[in-house]
UniProtKB/TrEMBL annotation:
It comes from the Eukaryota. It holds the Pfam family FG-GAP_3. InterPro entries: FG-GAP, Integrin_alpha_N. This is VCBS repeat-containing protein. The keyword Zinc does not apply. It comes from Rotaria socialis. The keyword ATP-binding does not apply. Keywords: Signal.
Length: 178
């Protein structure tokens, strides 16, 4: 297995490929942006070419970066999608929210305590669907997607530093207690 590392202090993402006998070599390092204060990333194939891509969450610059994998630990130029001024996104996750076979992105904004969703089209392009209207009463720091209530539809679990509180149903954009 290879490893991807987000380097908070120097605002880069490093890809480490495992070589023979288990040694890890840094093959590529990608600069997010000055002041990005990147908080999290997600590794997934968003363009269905079987090569893993990376999506980076930039707390300081209020955006995300999509890096399309080219194989052998190399990636294309980063593509930037803003999530809103002073939102300070802290966490991202990826899944197919609308069941069209294409990966979509969910961003949890730490400062504005809400979510932004991006609809995938099977390539590097994502459509910003806007901000989920409900504000949470805590700053979301980690999010995850799953079928938590076993209804066959995806929900999202949102965690603050001291609390695990909500599952949001994307099918109806309603908040479920949990
Ligand atoms: Ca890919
Ligand atoms: Ca989708």
């Amino acid at each position: 297995m290879d490893i991807v590392v987000a380097n908070f202090n120097n605002e880069t993402v490093s890809v480490l490929l495992r070589k023979d006998r288990g040694a890890l070599n840094i093959t590529n390092t990608f600069a997010a942006a000055t002041g990005s204060l990147l908080r999290s990333f997600f590794v997934v194939d968003v363009n269905n070419d079987t090569l893993l891509d990376i999506i980076v969450c930039n707390y300081g610059t209020d955006n995300i970066n999509v890096l399309i994998g080219l194989g052998k630990g190399t990636f294309g130029s980063k593509i930037t999608y803003p999530v809103g001024l002073e939102t300070h996104p802290g966490s991202i996750t990826v899944d197919d929210l609308n069941k069209d076979g294409q990966m979509d992105i969910i961003v949890a904004n730490y400062e504005t305590k809400n979510l932004v969703t991006f609809l995938g089209s099977g390539n590097e392009n994502f459509e910003n669907l806007g901000t989920y209207s409900a504000r949470f009463d805590f700053a979301p720091s980690i999010i995850a997607v799953g079928n938590f209530n076993n209804d066959g539809r995806l929900e999202i679990l949102i965690c603050g530093y001291y609390i695990i509180k909500f599952a949001v149903s994307f099918s109806s954009l309603t908040m479920l207690s949990c």
